[in-house]
Amino acid sequence: MIIEPRTRGFICLTAHPTGCEQNVVDQIAYVKSKGTINGAKKVLVIGSSTGFGLASRISSAFGSDAATIGVFFDKPSTVGRTGSAGYYNTAAFEKHAHEAGLYAKSINGDAFSNEIKRKTLDMIKEDLGQIDLVIYSLASPVRTHPVSGTRYKSVLKPIGSVFSNKTVDFHTGNVTEISINPAEGDDIANTVAVMGGEDWKMWMDALKSENLLSEGANTVAYSYIGPSLTEAVYRKGTIGAAKDDLEATAFTISDDLKAIGGKAYVSVNKALVTQASSAIPVIPLYISLLYKIMKEKGIHEGCIEQIQRLYSERLFNGKEMLLDENGRIRIDDWEMRDDVQTEVAKLWKIASTENLSDIGDLEGYSNDFFNLFGFKVNGVDYDADVNEMVEIPSEN
């Protein structure tokens, strides 16, 4: 079939298997071009099919020859209907990992559930024995608690007062004012339940209790801080409360891992176009301006560049870990440079529908968005007939 992008707001309803594979191939090539890293050899990535999670799996496998298990929740293809991008990404990753002689298996299901945790623990026990590194990169709007059965739904809201500022419709380029009502009722608690640190700790407790963590095993979860421009809706909003909880959980997990010489880290990453960030008002306009500036300065990074640098310069550089005053890894250091943020703030004041194409990189934002789903990828013939029915090798 001929597959074209069909969008609804910040969601693309279709995905292109060839484009997704080419994305994976390009990321593999980048990691290999940077040379071998003396990193972890047995890696579990929870939330492994897109964005930073996928980049982590690729960096582990093709940067350190690691055996990887990926856990994700994605829709497989059916006849006449495409699978999700994450499903195609995972199929492509496994295909190329196996061709390179690397162990790679994947588990598709709700990572919050006890069932998927059990399935993952059994796979580790049977195939790898123990894990050296656990990457926690889940991004989900809902969570059903595995003990209580309560279903929580996260919200993207400010806390305390209405937030008003500029945003952009990245499909049309229209810059408008938006107002978001503050959190109410259980909004904060529900968002923390979905996106905070409880599930991360549940995973680590389960792995540790069954002796599936090797001596010196570490774990890393991903977070974001951002500038004052976005803090009302992000870092000081409901999602920020969840990130605070995630970051606090790192210290608790670190205490638990002391007995095996391991540690839990939170890596604060750069603002990038992901399915999650596209849903947050204000962020697309901020990223459009940020991209323009960072590209001009030659310091722009995508997910794979970010994670490769995290691995090579921080996690596995053989030196003492460089952390901020709150114990976090700051791989957002280039984004948060004073010269970058000063220029973003200046452009933000004058940004409008009329000038955004000149002062920002809306085209780059839009391309990155469609790239997430395998569209607008260089080297792909989108007029060619493509088989939407793709299978993940380890599922067969």
Write up this protein:
The protein is α/β, with parallel strands linked by helices and 396 residues long. It has one domain: Rossmann fold (3-Layer(aba) Sandwich). It has helices at 17-33, 51-64, 85-99, 114-128, 187-195, 198-209, 238-257, 283-296, 303-315, 338-350, 356-359, 362-372; strands spanning 7-8, 11-12, 42-46, 67-72, 104-108, 131-136, 142-144, 151-153, 163-169, 174-180, 213-223, 263-268, 329-330. The two termini are 24 Å apart. The mean pLDDT is 95.
- Termini separation (Å)? 24 Å
Q: Which secondary-structure class do the elements indicate?
A: alpha/beta
Which second-level CATH architecture applies? 3-Layer(aba) Sandwich
Give the SSE string.
EEHEHEHEHEEEEEHHEHEHHEHHH
What's the Cα radius of gyration? 20 Å
Please tell me the overall pLDDT. Answer: 95
Say which CATH homologous superfamily is assigned. Answer: NAD(P)-binding Rossmann-like Domain
Estimated helix fraction: 25-40%
Spatial order of the strands forming the largest sheet: 5-4-3-6-11-12-13
With helices defined by DSSP (H or I, 4 residues minimum), what is the helix count?
12
Give the class-level CATH name: Alpha Beta
